[in-house]
Structures are given as structure tokens and as C-alpha cells.
């Protein structure tokens, strides 16, 4: 699609994610972002979002034709979107979180052709109602298809597991058939009662919703290496793991990697348990090397997973979206692997790869859904209808 074609696109206002919330108005193909409001669990962030929405609605005489939002029904941004859509008499369009991450890359690079997307982050509600976060997607202008996901781990205690990486390490041990090690490994650090309670949750599958989250796999790896058991800041464990990997790679030495590589099953599930298992037996003197090995092996596995999908669908572009791509070690190695396979690799350059840039993807998806609806209506009418410019 050439630049002039974007003037025919409808205007959409998107209200963003729960974490690092920012709204975005897509007008004639050009995004206008609000400031980042923060997390919508904070009432002040909700007030700021409402003010930003009012400003974005009034910043151009063009009419907003839809309000886009996350699929999660309980988010303040979703409820606000539904209310605004009713007041304006326009549709409210829900967009799956990881679809929006990849669509944000497509919007920034103005892509119309289908892409393979790797959406890697902490969490987002999936279209099946589960917690997603490690997703292989086939994305085109009108929609997406989930091709695969990371092997799911249980979240012992639900959301608290995202704040306490030791729980994810315990979940990984349970998934590896090594549940008997949980109490011995963690009781001294977190208390015998907590360690025992988590073991029982995992055994009984009580308060352990599954997640395919890449962020939780990073938490499990960091805790397995003793780098972070409880977090005081978001992504603290993943950052500690990346820093350890960076120290080792800075020595110029290649890390030793395990003999067993991750596997992909017939459903497209990438099983990272073989990467994690050796980390529980690493001596403290080898922590940095093990962290580097986890990163480089993960990048290679993700590249092979995405490249196979690209070959199957005869697609030459892979888009990377989601907060895990703030990790420079992962992003650099994954990009190198994919480019060596002859694939074009794109990620956000002007906008955040994380949730602060998500609203652009929501708006992009909604715009193209409106175009499809308009085209269909035109085809069903006997009178002539001005058709939007078509992709070149």
C-alpha cells in the first residue's frame, strides 16, 4: 500500500493495555499516542487515561469510527472503551493482546502482506480465555491464527507467581518430574510452609492456572540459578538473568549448552523444559555461563520454530513484538539466526515493543476490520460504492 492510500483509512481510537497503559489514535494511517499513564490498577492512571482519550477525540475534525480495546473484560480500558463506543454510536472492537503486539510492528512498518509473528511477553488474555505470552502467530491485515505456543507452566498462587520467581522454578521442577526437590531447594529461603504449600498446589492443580508466558520461563530460569527468588520491581528476575548472560558473553567465550534441545510437538508447542533442567544443577561459579547458554539456546529454538512456520506459509518476514524484546541478548541472537535463514526481521523502532506501544496494534487491527466490513457491504449492495485503495 502506498502512502497516499492511508488517507482513505478510517480513524480509530485504541485504549491500550493494563500495564504501562497508553492510548493511540490512528488517523489517516498516522498514530498519535498519549503519554504513558502507568498501570491501570492505579486510580490516577485511570483518570489520566480518561483525560488523554478526551484530548485525542478532539485533536482532529475527522470522526472516530471505532474504539479498540483489549479482550480482557475487567480492564478499566475495556470498560471505558465500551462506554465511549456507546456514547459515540460506533463499534467497540476487542483485539487479542499478542495479535496487537505483532500488528503494532506491521503498523509502524506499514505492512499489508502476511507475516509470521513471535509475540513474547509476561501475560495477555488469549482468545481461549487462557494466559498467553509465548506465541507463534500467522498475522495478516484482517486477523491472525495461533500456530503454536510455549509449553505451559502452572502459576502457583496465580498472579503472585509473577512476583515470586521461585514459584515458577518450583512449577518447572514439577513439570520436569522433580517435584520432590521443591521443598528442599526453597524452604530455607521462602519458608517451609510456603514451599510445601506450592508443592501441594502443583500436585493438586489448585490455584495453578496454566500460562505460555515467556516472561515466566525467564523467571523460572533466574530462580533456578539463584539470581532472583522474589522481585521488588517488574522484570527484575529477567533483567538479572540478562545481565548475567551479558557478563559471560562479554568475555568473548561461547557458552556450553546442553545436549538436549527444545522440541516442537504436532500442535506447535515449543517445549523449553530441556533448556531449564540443567540450570537447577549449575554451581555458583558457572551461573553467568549458564545464563548465556539459556539465552543463546532459546534464541536458536525460537528461530527454528518461526523459520519453519515461515517456510510452511511461504512468508519472508518475521515480526518480533512484546516486552521480552527489551532483552538485547535475546533479540540480537534471535535476529541473527533468522537473518541467516534469509528472513526479514522487523521489530518496533519508533514505538515501544512492550505494552506502551500496544494501542497502535489495536488500532491497526480495528482499522482493517472496518475496511473488510466496508468492502463486504459494498459487494452486497446493488449500487456502486467507493472502494478503499487496495494493497499494492
Automatic annotation (TrEMBL):
Indicate the segments forming the HypF Kae1-like domain, all copies: 10-108
- SUPFAM superfamilies given for it? Actin-like ATPase domain (SSF53067)
Q: Where is the Carbamoyltransferase Kae1-like domain?
A: 117-362
Entries under InterPro entries matching the protein: ATPase_NBD (IPR043129), Carbamoyltrans_HypF-like (IPR051060), HypF_C (IPR041440), HypF_C_2 (IPR055128)
- Entry superkingdom: Bacteria
In terms of PANTHER family, this protein maps to: CARBAMOYLTRANSFERASE, CARBAMOYLTRANSFERASE HYPF
State the similarity comment: Belongs to the carbamoyltransferase HypF family.
Q: Return the protein name.
A: Hydrogenase maturation protein HypF
Per the UniProt record, the source organism is Ideonella azotifigens
Amino acid at each position: 500500500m502506498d502512502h497516499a492510500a492511508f488517507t482513505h483509512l478510517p480513524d480509530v481510537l485504541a485504549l491500550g493495555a493494563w500495564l504501562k497503559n497508553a492510548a493511540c489514535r490512528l488517523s489517516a494511517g498516522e498514530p498519535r499516542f498519549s503519554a504513558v499513564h502507568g498501570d491501570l490498577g492505579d486510580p490516577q492512571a485511570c483518570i489520566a487515561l480518561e483525560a488523554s482519550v478526551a484530548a485525542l477525540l478532539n485533536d482532529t475534525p475527522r470522526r472516530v469510527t471505532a474504539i479498540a480495546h483489549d479482550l480482557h473484560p475487567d480492564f478499566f480500558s475495556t470498560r471505558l472503551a465500551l462506554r465511549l463506543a456507546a456514547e459515540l454510536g460506533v463499534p467497540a472492537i476487542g483485539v487479542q493482546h499478542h495479535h496487537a503486539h505483532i500488528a503494532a510492528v506491521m503498523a509502524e512498518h506499514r505492512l499489508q502482506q502476511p507475516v509470521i509473528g513471535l509475540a513474547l511477553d509476561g501475560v495477555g488474555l488469549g482468545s481461549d480465555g487462557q494466559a498467553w505470552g509465548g506465541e507463534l502467530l500467522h498475522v495478516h491485515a484482517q486477523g491472525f491464527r495461533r500456530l503454536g505456543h510455549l509449553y505451559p507452566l502452572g502459576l502457583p498462587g496465580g498472579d503472585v507467581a509473577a512476583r515470586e520467581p521461585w514459584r515458577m522454578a518450583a512449577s518447572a521442577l514439577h513439570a520436569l518430574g522433580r517435584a520432590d526437590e521443591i521443598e528442599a531447594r526453597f524452604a530455607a529461603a521462602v519458608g517451609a510452609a510456603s514451599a510445601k504449600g506450592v508443592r501441594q498446589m502443583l500436585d493438586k492443580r489448585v490455584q495453578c492456572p496454566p500460562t505460555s508466558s515467556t516472561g515466566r520461563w525467564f523467571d523460572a530460569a533466574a530462580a533456578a540459578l539463584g539470581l532472583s527468588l522474589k522481585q521488588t520491581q517488574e522484570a527484575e528476575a529477567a533483567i538479572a538473568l540478562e545481565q548475567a548472560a551479558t557478563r559471560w558473553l562479554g568475555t568473548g567465550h561461547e557458552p556450553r549448552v546442553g545436549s538436549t534441545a527444545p522440541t516442537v510437538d504436532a500442535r506447535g508447542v515449543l517445549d523449553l523444559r530441556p533448556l531449564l533442567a540443567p540450570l537447577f544443577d549449575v554451581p555458583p561459579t558457572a551461573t553467568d555461563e549458564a545464563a548465556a547458554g539459556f539465552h543463546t539456546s532459546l534464541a536458536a529454538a525460537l528461530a527454528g520454530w518461526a523459520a519453519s512456520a515461515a517456510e510452511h506459509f511461504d512468508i519472508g518476514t518475521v515480526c518480533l513484538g512484546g516486552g521480552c524484546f527489551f532483552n538485547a541478548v535475546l533479540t540480537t541472537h534471535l535476529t541473527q539466526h533468522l537473518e541467516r535463514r534469509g528472513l526479514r526481521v522487523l521489530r518496533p523502532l519508533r514505538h515501544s515493543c512492550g505494552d506502551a506501544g500496544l494501542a497502535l496494534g489495536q488500532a491497526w487491527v480495528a482499522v482493517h476490520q472496518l475496511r473488510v466490513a466496508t468492502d463486504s457491504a459494498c459487494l452486497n449492495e446493488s449500487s456502486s460504492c467507493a472502494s478503499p485503495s487496495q494493497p499494492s
